[in-house]
Q: What sequence folds into this?
């Protein structure tokens, strides 16, 4: 079993190196927002490791999206059938497959819940969409000893990676494998927005680790864009509010600073601004800043982040001090 895990890990890593994720963002039409349909690399890696796809396998994937996972599967398996219901997304994915010359990959444009029984049976069936809850028709298309790997909706917007197999007696066996994290940091967000490429992001991450800085601080210096425009777009992508400092200054409650050490706030890139009905409003110039420590240490029901530019963040520091 350990040898199989090692082999799987090596093959998955090799496939992911040969097919950079940003290749599937470059072809994205902004109106389709295809970048958002591409899981982060850490999530893809975990899913593929659990799938244990072998070179001789035939694989069915439900939910092509931008085509990144299907293309990786084509590097791992003998044959891949992938299904996408959205015509526009299907056309873009097929275009990318053609450019990459993936001859062992068949794309069908249809409802994935019925599978593709005429091309089966399959050694692995990968269900990428949590919207498909009834997998019975798909399970019928498994080869002997085959596995169905599905992403299922968990609590609080989490996703559960689940394995199904059919026993010799015909019983369906279900096992939850892992919680899969689909959250993306600012670097991945900028990659999906087409504002950086993989090489640029990798170098920025390396520099950010060395200097102990948020990755946005490094990338900001390399992007030819006004701070207000950049941070407003990042706020939109992260579901945050962007605010100019002049709108926040009247709301500042300086006494809140007494509850936090300067080192804590510096390390978290956060400034407490206002408390209202047990909700704490904080400003940050780092979309990836975490508020979990505040919730553990203080009796607030919620901590709401508002994104500001680095210059406005400095102005707020001057005010609260």
A:
């Amino acid at each position: 079993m350990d040898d199989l895990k090692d082999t799987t890990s090596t093959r998955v890593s090799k496939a992911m190196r040969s097919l950079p994720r940003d290749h599937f963002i470059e072809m994205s039409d902004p109106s389709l927002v295809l970048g958002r349909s591409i899981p982060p690399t850490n999530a893809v890696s975990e899913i593929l490791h659990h799938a244990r796809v072998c070179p001789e396998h035939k694989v069915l994937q439900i939910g092509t999206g931008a085509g990144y996972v299907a293309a990786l599967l084509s590097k791992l398996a003998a044959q891949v059938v992938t299904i996408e219901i959205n015509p526009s997304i299907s056309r873009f994915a097929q275009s990318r497959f053609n450019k990459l010359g993936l001859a062992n990959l068949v794309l069908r444009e249809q409802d994935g819940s019925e599978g593709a029984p005429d091309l089966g049976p399959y050694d692995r069936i990968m269900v990428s969409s949590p919207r498909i809850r009834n997998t019975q028709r798909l399970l019928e298309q498994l080869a002997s000893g085959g596995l169905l790997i599905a992403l299922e909706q968990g609590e609080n917007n989490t996703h559960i990676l689940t394995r199904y197999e059919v026993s010799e007696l015909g019983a369906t066996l279900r096992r939850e494998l892992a919680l899969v994290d689909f959250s993306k940091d600012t670097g991945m967000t900028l990659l999906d927005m087409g504002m950086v490429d993989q090489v640029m992001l990798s170098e920025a991450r390396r520099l950010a680790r060395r200097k102990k800085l948020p990755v946005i601080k490094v990338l900001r210096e390399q992007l030819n864009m006004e701070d207000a425009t950049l941070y407003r777009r990042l706020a939109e992508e992260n579901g945050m509010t962007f605010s100019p400092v002049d709108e926040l200054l009247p709301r500042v409650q300086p006494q809140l600073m007494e509850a936090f050490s300067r080192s804590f706030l510096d390390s978290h890139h956060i400034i407490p601004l206002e408390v209202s009905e047990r909700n704490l409003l904080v400003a940050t110039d780092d979309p990836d800043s975490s508020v979990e420590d505040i919730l553990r240490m203080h009796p607030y029901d919620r901590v709401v982040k508002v994104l500001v530019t680095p210059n406005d963040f400095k102005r707020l520091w001057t005010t609260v001090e």
About this structure: The chain has three domains: 2-180, 185-224, 239-320. The two ends are 59 Å apart (CA to CA).
